[in-house]
Amino acid sequence: MLDLLGIGFGPSNVALAAAIAEGENPSRSLFLEAKERFGWHPGMLLDGARMQISFLKDLVTLRNPESPYSFLAYLKAKGRLEEFANLREFYPSRIEFQDYLRWVAGYFEHQTVFGARVTSVSPDFGIDGMARSFTVRAELANSGEYVTYQARNVVYAPGGTPNRVAGVAPRDERVIHTAEFLERFPKSFPDRSADLSFAVVGGGQSAAEIIEYILAKYPLSRVHAVLPGYSFRPADDSPYSNEVFFSAEVDGHFAAHDRAARLAEARSTNYGVVDLDLIEDLYRMGYEDQVRGNVPRLVLCRSSRLLSADAGPSGIGVTVGGPEGSRSLNLDGLVLATGYHRELDPEMFRDVIPHLRRNESGNFLVSRAYRADSAPELTAGIYFQGLAELSHGIGDTLLSLLPFRSAEIAEDVRQRSEAPSVDEVEYPPARHIEPDRATILETLQRFPLATLISSDDESEVFATHLPLILDRERGEQGVLFGHLDVGNPQVPNLNGRRVLAVFHGPNSYISPRTYATDQLPTWNYVAVHVRGHVRVLENQDQVVSGLASISEKADPSDGAYRLDENDSRIEKLIGGIVGFELDIESLTGRFKLSQDRNDEDRKRAMAVLREGAGEEHHDFVARIHQQ
Could you tell me the sign of the dihedral formed by the alpha carbons of 126, 129, 133, 139, in that order? Predict the structure, then answer.
């Protein structure tokens, strides 16, 4: 049984392995990687391409400058520290940074299985209906055999899957995504002196780097840049804008109500943008073509998109749509710089997904520590690396935050693996505690029939069901009036004692058929626990006044019955009852309303509760559902 199993061993889970190794009481962990060896964007390790972030934003330094897994430690180990310092360079080459990542990954080869393609992750349900671990099944590339592992937590770090413009770009050796550019492009077009024509679809950094590569390596070639906007847009890498990648920004984004707007505003720091130096280099190359009297080799297809692409024996027939209509191009090759998408593999996690909670937009709910929010029966943990941009901010898919995210996941796993003592168990759960005092007091007034519980010196427990009427104007938190039959055995053990009064609001059985998701049955309810000391009333007028208040509060409608305090019948009955007041010392609203379910399931459960609450309380149930 593993504490943690990581799926994927790219930079995210390499950073996690480092954080686990540096933490207290390292968890027992293993990582499965489908590739045969470590690799990081091998298709874009272009000569001269540099990192867009400082070497200080490696896997560990911003979290722990003394870490043995830092970029500076790598340079020292490779014997190049002085030479690198002599470069006066903050941005290493992409080739060197991959070598650094591979160097760190090498420290954890003993707990990594390469060539292991995970095929399924399944919850292990016990006879009590709870799943406290997962079974992970993987196929080994070298033998075709299957292996299984058991883990209490799974950390999913799939990286990005190339966007291939489904239904438009054909599967052909001359149609190449940037993810495989260096591996396939030189092989598909070995003659660099040939007169070739290409199109590059996309307007981001990768598209610009590919265009520069083709124009430099294939001097007779012509490139059509299919841009989604008017031109290449420069990246906003100014210091203030770059603070969006600070670790503290994750807290602000996670707590924000306008997450979508925040993401949209920050897009210019990362998506569809190009380093200004590279834009200027491309423009200069075009200008030099004009100086030489050459036909421009870079053609901008502005505000355009790829409509179709058909592979034939003589080339790739491409249709591009733009503001002035569509145009056809006959090309030798097509490069897709169309980015990546990240999602939870629906086939791999088909047995897990029904137990994960989603928001109203259908996105998985994720905790601040990157743990997927799950139904109560799934206590084993699923953690996401790079799939939580909506909830955690634009830095979620980038290298900048890896040191912090990995440490947060490692710490969350560690804390959850340490079983809490009985004193540390939170009961009732915080989600079942109603925080609004006005709602709690309204519950007392709407549902006055309570259970009064007390005990004597011998620990004999007494309970009586009776109406308790609230006077909100008296005492620090209010006063409750009630009365008992003089023969009730609870009476001699009441005056001056601390008691518990339980008020019962609407309640209902919630069938599994109520929910939209697969759930077990439960019971929802509204209750309030009141604690305080009792004072038995000796003054008969106070008792009679309290009795009159019962009718007034129980039926406040016009023309309703009101008790006449001078009614002769009261005189005959007053000797048979004992009136008392309860000075409220604490109020606890315990509202169990399917708060651990998704919005749709909670709405359905509330409808059942509302149906059984009585028409006069429909507004109350609707209101507590909104809180």
Answer: positive
Domain range annotation of the chain: 4-160+342-419, 165-235+270-340, 430-626
pLDDT at 356: 96
Reduce the secondary structure of 265-289 to three states and give it as a string: HHHHHCCCCECHHHHHHHHHHHHHH
- Tell me the one-letter amino acid at 327: R
CB 335 within 8 A of CB 176: yes
Distance CA 376, CA 177 (A): 42
Mean pLDDT of the chain: 92
pLDDT tens column, 355-370: 999 998 899 999 999 9
Residue 558: pLDDT over 90: no
The class of domain 430-626 in CATH terms is mainly beta
Average pLDDT of 482-500?
A: 93
For residue 430, give the DSSP letter.
Answer: G
| Distance, CA of 342 to CA of 322 (rounded, Å) | 28
The CATH architecture annotation of domain 4-160+342-419 reads 3-Layer(bba) Sandwich (3.50)
- pTM, two decimals, is 0.67
pLDDT bracket for residue 425 (50, 70, 90): low
Q: Is domain 165-235+270-340 classified as CATH 2.60.40.420? A: no
* Same fold yes or no, 4-160+342-419 and 165-235+270-340: yes
Q: Which helix (H) or strand (E) holds 15?
A: helix 11-22
* Residues forming a β-bridge with 312: 315
Chain centroid, CA 418 distance in Å = 23
Residues in contact with 179: Cβ distance below 8 Å, sequence separation at least 6, in sequence order:
41, 43, 44, 162, 340
DSSP strand pairing (305-312 vs 315-322)? antiparallel
Q: Which is nearest to 351 in space by CA: 331, 380, 325, 394?
A: 380
Q: Which helix (H) or strand (E) holds 14?
A: helix 11-22
* Angle (deg, nearest 10), helices 71-78 and 94-106: 90
